[in-house]
TrEMBL record, chain A:
InterPro entries: Galactose-bd-like_sf. SUPFAM superfamilies: Galactose-binding domain-like. It comes from the Bacteria. This is Discoidin domain-containing protein. Keywords: Signal. It holds the Pfam family F5_F8_type_C_2. It comes from Kribbella sindirgiensis. The keyword Signal applies. The keyword Signal applies.
UniProtKB/TrEMBL annotation, chain B:
PROSITE patterns: TAT. It comes from the Bacteria. Residues 44-140 form the Phospholipase D N-terminal domain. Residues 152-490 form the PhoD-like phosphatase metallophosphatase domain. Signal peptide: none annotated. This is Twin-arginine translocation signal domain-containing protein.
Amino acid sequence: MLRRLALAAVPLTLLVPAVAVATGNHVEISATPQPVEVVPLPCFPAGKVMLGMTNTGRKPTIADMRVSGDSALTLSRHQFSSYLPVDQLVKAPLEITVPRGTAPATHTVDLTVGKERLEVPVVIKPVPARDNLLLGEQAVASSTNGNMRLCGGVDGNADSAQWGASGWHDNTKGVFPDTYGVDFVQTTTIGRVVLQTLDSTTYPAAVMGIRDFDAQVRTGSTWTTVGAIRGNVQGRVTVTFAPLAVDALRLVIRDSNDHGYSRIVELEGYSS
Amino acid sequence: MVTRRSFLTATGAAAALALTGNLPDLVDAVGISHRTDKRPLFTLGVASGDPLPDAVVIWTRLAPGPLEPFGGMDDRTVKVEWEVAEDEMFRRVVRRGTAHARPEYAHTVHVDVRGLRPWRHYFYRFRAAGQISPIGRTRTAPAPSDEPAVTLAVASCQAFYDGFYTAYQDVVRREHDVVLFLGDYIYEVGVGPTAGVRNQAVPVDFAGEISTLDEYRARYALHKTDPDLLAAHAAAPWIVTLDDHEVEGNWAGYVSEDGLPHDDFLVRRANGFRAYWEHMPLRLDQSPDGPSIRLHRHLRYGRTADLSVLDTRQFRDDQTSTGGWLPPDEVSTDPARTITGDAQERWLLDTLGRSTSRWNVVAQQVAMAQLDRKTGPELELPMDTWNGYAASRDRVLSGVRDQGVRNFVVLTGDLHRSVASDLRVNFADPSTPAIGSEFVTTSISSGKDGVDADATGRALLAENPHVKYQNVQRGYLSCRLDRSAWTSEFRIVDRVVTPGGTASTRATLVVEDGHPGTHLA
């Protein structure tokens, strides 16, 4: 008897969640750009899309966006919730990545707010030909500050003005050495390393940049120092050496000009 | 008769019948049991807050995956039963009812339980989908005419990645009647993959600074993965207010310290406020209306204490310069300057003026006493505190003096250091009478282990005759108020970067009834 009553009532229970759905009726979803292009490298600066919600109703509301994608895609967020004033675009970034070796294809990411839905096309691109062999490869660091990104030093952006969004520094203030570099997935020939350390009008290299570092390459499990720089005050520093087939490359940073953090805007590596 | 054991182990329809026997509850419990997700729902514990003589708010959140999107919940509203009893076995249930955990409130539940008796311990619990929550203990405020001794714990600043919340073990052990939390419950900056000193795996989603509502919600859930924090919420009611990091470091009024445009910052502020209210045991009166929240409020503990809770962030003028330690300038000494806003300042002085209680307590965020850390006649003051809003402080302290406010005590957080001070209208003249006392509680974890005294701490003692005590380790303040005295024990934890630290009393300071100012016991 109890069981029958209970089962009969199940549909009523499922009708309960009206409130959250109703708020979605006046929310417009946006995503920029479309399609989203993704390159199957771990630190490549692609796959970025700005999600948006605009409240087109008459009263401010709270909205929950659900973000879902094909299983081939890794999404940096599955939820975007916000207070929405009337007629104001509210934005949140989404990053889409795919494993190395993913074949070119088109996928979709679904964005839903209540009954509103937007399908965002996602195009997986082939890995482009690169002179800078570090670009987009998996960065490895001794530590990374909470406000910085591990990939920030190999994302192709060497502009010190965009340091905050696109650079790297360690999380051990005043403690050296720090290390930053790349582990290659296959043996790669490197003969030149270029460091762009922080060097802007506000934060000149002579004050905030990396001062002392060793460039090292690894073959198998053996690290070899291929160049050592001391007393640097420049933003862009090149270390050239006889090309070597290596499994990894890193900087061992021994001091910076403020003796605080090791700040890398971009680290590049070339075959010669 | 339902025994505690059978209640805690029963599930589904049987438990629903045993608890209430009425059909709607039974139906709902069974309906929700169709969830394929059978994980525990009450991972974030329970809490209670803002006690009145006849009422207290009880709180919980359903989150089978606390660090997952939507806490692991789908978008359905869930009925949650609650009950309040006089005994831990729930044999004498005095109130029960049903609430809704709604997705638009992150499946949090706030119940303003009325009809309780004054100055009594009560036990409460929730049930949803056949699962029973942990049991919380709370205590109502004393009757208006009574004057019992009251114990309170004062805490602030619990950076997740800087340390374990060991101090809360001591808060629980010492059985306080109420816990005051004075801000920086969460930090908005990124949490690395191993959560700093904790060596706890944290999803990569937590690596960046937060600004959307889902991110603020997830950050509360992360902080509430600490079992000592949950235990402290379950042990006593909390009275809370926020400071800057619940929104953004050093925000001031409409001004973002990250330089966000006005409209974007108001959305961020609204998101921060919303997640704050959702996760705190606050009444509906404190529920934000977009980017506005009413946190300043008045609570009474009989004739023992009047408690004014302030919000010194939402209505303040922007900090002078960086808000760091600086000499006073024309901005910080501008007579028009305010840290409370005019309305809150009038409300505070009115509330203090009308009080008939023995102890008049202001629970707020940032240091009120002058704190000069520069050796010699020049001053260097923390500009994010009342020190950067000199005229605002003058008006409040003059008002306290002119109205003859009895036993004025200010409780403060923010500094990550313990400080005890006399308050006087003119700090430059130590011969003028003290009109009250300030106790700054140190951080629960922010700043890691700390030291007994750093250069700033030594300078505070040397340069400020009204400063009676300082320490830069972690811990909280354990206070007892009675008819003869206010006693503040600075409870200090010997280490927080590893678990298992030990708490002890580093110093005890006393205010005697009718004698403004504090001294070491």
